[in-house]
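Chain X:
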Amino acid sequence: MTGAAGLVGTELVKVLVARGHRVLGLTPSVEAAESVCRAGATPVMGDLLEAGRWQDEAATEWVFHLPPHSVPTRRVTERQAGAIGRARLTMDANLLDAVAAGTTRRIVYGAHTSWYAAAGSRPITEDELSRPSAWGRSFTPALDRLGGYVLTGLPIITALPGWIYGNASWFRDRVIEPVMAGRRVLHVDRTRPWVSPIHAHDCARALVHLAERGEAGGRYFVVNGEPVRLFDFAEVFARLAKRRLRVYPGPAAATRLVLGPVLADYLGTDAVFSNIRLRGIGFTFRYPTLEQGIHEVVGVLNE
């Protein structure tokens, strides 16, 4: 597994270990290795951007590819987004070339719905034409090259999660910590955009389900069936945590200046996706609504 120390990676390690699997997690640092160990996996030291001895460990029964930078979490210029997209090409090649001649049964490739389409408020399926955001366009070459690997016979399943939330990553930085500390949360518009969320634990469970039952060469949106407003993440968390929600209503022009055009475009576009294909292969959600998922997050905080 790449990205084993991340929000979804940590949950995925726990799910796999609980099912009796031995998990090897690629880690670039000692700190990440310690996190992977705590979750129950065996760390393999290495960097996706560089070929190395870690590639000898990659030919496992299942491969989960969850490298960083699936979604922007800070101000990103178009040039920086392009550099991140090119880095993803290198990461993909170093991993997929290493397993190409092996006996791996399934490769679950973690992408993101922003790579696929700026969809609008109507849920779309994986069969519709891709219209990626400015951020997503940076990764179009990676998805195009992925199609080439599929044509060579690699058993790749592409998972496209929506807005992943949990007690870490952007949700902790942008929602949990400011709300709990009484600081303001930045929001431009409380009425939009509409987005498709997914709890980190359900996302991890879905990735395992795809490894078990997904169709090689297929693409699957990993999202809840109930879209939410972006503002709802903070509103629901504050209400369930019994904290006052303080909002900084930044003007759109100022927000674009602070966040940059790439991130502002990503955060300002309705993007709603259908999970009918995922449900069609038998997946069920433990947290099918944002309310239920954030209730779990608040419960963890109160333990």
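Chain Y:
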Amino acid sequence: MSKDTNFKIFKPNWVVPDNVHALQTIKNLTIDENLLNNDRIQIEDNVGIRFLRSKNKVLNQIHSNISVELPSKSLDADASYTFKKNIICAVRTADCMPILVTNDEGSFVSAIHAGWRGLSTGVIEKTIKKLNPIKNLIVWIGPHISQKYFEVGSEVKEIFLDYDPTYEVAFNQSSNSKYFFSLKTVAEIKLHKLGVKNIYCMDNFCTYANSEIFYSYRRGDLKERMTSLIWIES
């Protein structure tokens, strides 16, 4: 992503098939012709832009491990996937971790909303296992709060270690039985165990630290959200 914080939308920096398109909105989203015609970010993805302009329904995110195949009548979920063209998979975040998924054939796309609750109950695994036997997955981890600023209680650590002791590396002792927790580390461990080799994560991803670029719930942005979206272009 360019360091120019005037950009309101950027494309994830990952290597995916030509038919797979993704966008990430950032702070103070505005869509106008000057933005769309800006050669430096080359935003020509009309399907995604129309989605952002529209009032299309998005997932009713409930910090669960539920994943739905789109189109779906039920949107009470924290992950979606589709094999259909021009169907948008999207999640909205402001500290939680957005994860976009496809494969080297571009035969499907998926968007996952992963906060600590979703991670602890397997939202990543449950979504990817629904896609079996698809292999050669490609994953992009979007903007989220970094370990340095994400302090949690000992009960959160216990939940994760009860599930898998290898998650110990994701926790650094803080004080008063508190820990600094890395969402990214747990996600990467889970993805590696699922056989995912191609994992991309943006630079300077921390929503809390980069106040000029990202919304952060823990920094006080209680209502604003960013959107991560992915689709297969027809």
